[in-house]
Design a protein that fits this description.
This protein is α+β, with helices and mostly antiparallel strands. About 20% of the residues lie in helices and about 45% in strands. The longest helix has 14 residues.
Length: about 100
């Protein structure tokens, strides 16, 4: 993940993603409230695909979080081999990590 968020960096393999990155991000949200990802579009060509969506959620501090996301995927042997995530990290830092 690009940027300078506490969760930015390279996360390798399912273990780091599912047991490191995702819990660190989800800890910033009130998981008792609705969270959605509205897919805007997906484009695929060969071993590459790009998905665009809008994430909507409520933070643990009660603030509304709405951020547009683009992820570029590379597929190998029928599985996701790489994903690069892009979104407004300045906004995410302000809303999710302010004061940290």
């Amino acid at each position: 993940m690009a940027g300078d968020l506490p969760t930015s960096g390279t996360w390798v393999g399912p273990d780091q993603i599912f047991h490191g990155f995702l819990p660190a991000m989800l800890a910033r949200f009130d998981t008792g409230k609705p969270m959605s990802q509205e897919v805007r579009g997906v484009i695929a060509d060969g071993d590459r695909a790009v998905a665009e969506w809008t994430t909507r959620a409520t933070t643990v501090a009660g603030a509304e979080y709405v951020n547009d996301v683009v992820i570029a995927f590379r597929v190998a042997d029928g599985r996701i081999a790489e994903a690069r995530e892009y979104f407004d990290t300045a906004y995410a830092n302000h809303v999710l990590f302010a004061g940290n």
